[in-house]
Amino acid sequence: MSTTSTTPYRLAVIVGSTRDGRFGPTVGQWFTALAEQHAGAELDVIDVADLELPACHPNWGTERTPALTELAARVEAADAYVVVTPEYNHSYPAQLKHFIDLHRTEWNAKPVGFVSYGGVSGGLRAVEHLRQVFAEVHCVTIRDGVSFHGAWDHFGEDGKAHDPQGAAGAAKTMLDQLDWWARTLRAGRAERPYN
């Protein structure tokens, strides 16, 4: 077995909610706790609400600020991503899209999974839009995800899920698929760099 297949892969968990009073940290912490138990992944949590992103996109090729350089290095270092997203007006949060668009080649040839939440749709419309966005930056999206319909009813005030088995089972399925894609694509990038 190669070292690439046994070395832990780096998983960036991106919390995309930015609204005041947001529920994203609750869902993000729940997922992160599960992902930490999943063998083989080293986690980096990136909360978009905590980032100081520029109001305008810099032109490609211009020098990045130190903060953006550090952020790009975190995106680049990840072998895989999981986006925790709510649904705002049938789509994803604007700041999440802004964060994605500030990076380009850092995303290339890596897998991305989704944990979504919201009202009756469970954030699935946001995920469908994000699949198109991530395809454009050369990511492979994982088919299976985690979705919380009426999310606020699924968690207690302590942040724990009321039905941990069902949601945890969905998360494990996604993480198992993400593990395969992360390791396979990492090996592919090492053997044949992606242009």
From TrEMBL:
<dbReference type="InterPro" id="IPR050712">
    <property type="entry name" value="NAD(P)H-dep_reductase"/>
</dbReference>
<dbReference type="InterPro" id="IPR029039">
    <property type="entry name" value="Flavoprotein-like_sf"/>
</dbReference>
<dbReference type="InterPro" id="IPR005025">
    <property type="entry name" value="FMN_Rdtase-like_dom"/>
</dbReference>
<dbReference type="GO" id="GO:0016491">
    <property type="term" value="F:oxidoreductase activity"/>
</dbReference>
<protein>
    <submittedName>
        <fullName>NAD(P)H-dependent oxidoreductase</fullName>
    </submittedName>
</protein>
<dbReference type="GO" id="GO:0005829">
    <property type="term" value="C:cytosol"/>
</dbReference>
<feature type="domain" description="NADPH-dependent FMN reductase-like">
    <location>
        <begin position="10"/>
        <end position="152"/>
    </location>
</feature>
<dbReference type="Pfam" id="PF03358">
    <property type="entry name" value="FMN_red"/>
</dbReference>
<dbReference type="GO" id="GO:0010181">
    <property type="term" value="F:FMN binding"/>
</dbReference>
